Amino acid sequence: MKFPTGALLLWLVxxxxxxxxxxxxxxxxxxxxKQVERLHSESAQQRAGAAEAMGFLRATGEQKALIDHxxxxxxxxxxxxxxxxxxxxDRNAVSPLLAALSDEDWVTRQAAHVSLTxxxxxxxxxxxxxxxxxxxxxxxxxxxxxxxxxxxxxxTDLLAMVGDPKPWASIWSVSASSTxxxxxxxxxxxLIGPAYWQTKNVPFPQWCTxxxxxxxxxxxxxxxxxGSKFVMTEYELATSLDNKxxxxxxxxxxxxxxxxxxSFSPRQARYIRITSFGSKQPIYPT
Length: 286
Prior knowledge:
Blueprint: E1 11-14, H1 27-38, H2 44-56, H3 63-68, H4 75-88, H5 94-100, H6 106-120, H7 132-147, H8 156-161, H9 168-171, E2 173-176, E3 206-225, E4 232-240, E5 246-253, E6 259-279
Parallel strand pairs: 1-3
Antiparallel strand pairs: 2-3, 3-6, 4-5, 4-6
Helix pairs in contact: 1-2, 2-4, 4-6, 5-6
């Protein structure tokens, strides 16, 4: 995939769970859980405040709770839930937000429109204070557009806006030295969780190789690791044109960043390999 900047961002999600696969509750998770609890308060002000806070927290894992509160009995809550989905929603939030364009509260309608533009990248007009007939006509434009969007790939309108990039997820393949949990292909699904590629109780080195399908110009690779206590302590990044001879771009020792971004001079590559030679949790090489 060639972007205007000439850089390829390869999002590799690497996780290392704790022994027993029980992960500690982080301060962030605690904050999100507190707001989820507040969503069930009898107080509309508390529920509205919780929805607003979840938007600030980018609590993407709680999208369903926010969608459910688009039908809250209080317009205060519906407004904040609609707005929070601009930051916490994905394509599953689009249809509920389209329905919210018909909400009896004009602020909720406006918030739903803002979220739709943010989530979809489209800017079809919608006047939340127009006559019911006018609003219905404008909402229909949104609905007709969404009904034509493929369920398995981005909208063609957006692909055209960014220069018709290749559907990378459909042409990339991933192989790995071993797998404990999470099939290797989730390394390139574009998501940071909830599933991860993991290795366990296997000797170093452990590696994964992404096949781009054909030669591409590559200038950056980003590797997302689970957390600071589980990062690689020695790694190698290499590329190849034939999956036989690999050119090492970088090999380093020492604690790595949770989001490890490696930039380099643009080069042609078909295969990109990440190899872990050491980690803070040796039981989990990757």
